Amino acid sequence: MILEAIGEDPTRDGLLDTPDRVARMYAEVFSGLRQDPKEVLSARFEVGDSEIVLVRDIPFYSMCEHHLVPFYGKAHVAYVPRDGVVTGLSKLARLVEAYARRPQVQERLTNEIAQTLYEELNAEGVFVMIQAEHMCMSMRGVQKPGSSTITKARRGNLTSAQEQEVFTLLQASRQL
Ligand SMILES: Nc1nc2c(ncn2[C@@H]2O[C@H](COP(=O)(O)OP(=O)(O)OP(=O)(O)O)[C@@H](O)[C@H]2O)c(=O)[nH]1
Ligand SMILES: [Zn+2]
């Protein structure tokens, strides 16, 4: 229907398999809709006292729900565990994936990651920051390639000193 609507001929050779390919691509790109993000955080470890845990530079691809074109970039996920209870590091990246692979807006993506981590892990505090470029602002519309959007979400009792420490860690680790 899309091919017809744009004035293409869906019966020409190169386009014959395109509807099937696009259907399979959407199943992959929107696979987060069939995932329960809470299950992602099932791994738990006791590590004794622990301060901030930060997984930075988690690459992700999502789809803007207004135009169904990609927005993509990096997510930084930090939390302060309660009573030394942590989850697996990869689970933080899986959590980003579970919420990114849906029709999204960046603010909601940021909030959902923070909220789920906070609730499921019963963390003392959570801080999530996402930096992304939106193709709907680059390849069409206002056409501003290279512009990026930064969103943050905080949950729990992060002190401003701890939040500052996350920024310092993000900065420091880049120099390693
Ligand atoms: N807040 C927010 N806005 C987004 C996000 N992704 C896309 N948008 C914006 O959603 C808005 C939709 O605006 P509309 O005026 O309904 O759509 P449009 O006519 O295609 O707008 P233009 O993009 O300005 O051409 C645009 O301003 C987009 O930049 C997002 O993740 N968060
Ligand atoms: Zn858009």
Please identify which CATH superfamily we are dealing with: GTP cyclohydrolase I, C-terminal domain/NADPH-dependent 7-cyano-7-deazaguanine reductase, N-terminal domain
Largest sheet descriptor: 5 strands, mixed
What is the CATH topology assignment? GTP Cyclohydrolase I, domain 2
| Domain module count | 1
| Widest β-sheet, arrangement of strands | 5-2-3-6-7
Shape: elongated
Helix content: 25-40%
The residue ranges in which pLDDT falls below 50 over 5 or more consecutive positions are: none
User: Total number of β-strand segments?
Assistant: 7
What are the secondary-structure elements, in order, as H or E?
A: HHHEEEEHEHEHEH
Approximately what portion of the residues adopt beta-strand conformation?
25-35%
Bound small molecules, by name, code or SMILES, are: guanosine-5'-triphosphate, zinc ion
CATH architectural grouping? 2-Layer Sandwich
- Report the span from N to C terminus: 51 Å
Radius of gyration: 19 Å
Q: Report the mean per-residue pLDDT as an integer.
A: 95
What CATH first level would be assigned? Alpha Beta
Total helical segments? 7
Structural class: alpha+beta
Oligomer status: single chain
GO molecular function: GTP binding; GTP cyclohydrolase I activity; zinc ion binding
Catalytic activity: GTP + H2O = 7,8-dihydroneopterin 3'-triphosphate + formate + H(+)
Pathway: Cofactor biosynthesis; 7,8-dihydroneopterin triphosphate biosynthesis; 7,8-dihydroneopterin triphosphate from GTP: step 1/1
Pfam family, one: GTP_cyclohydroI
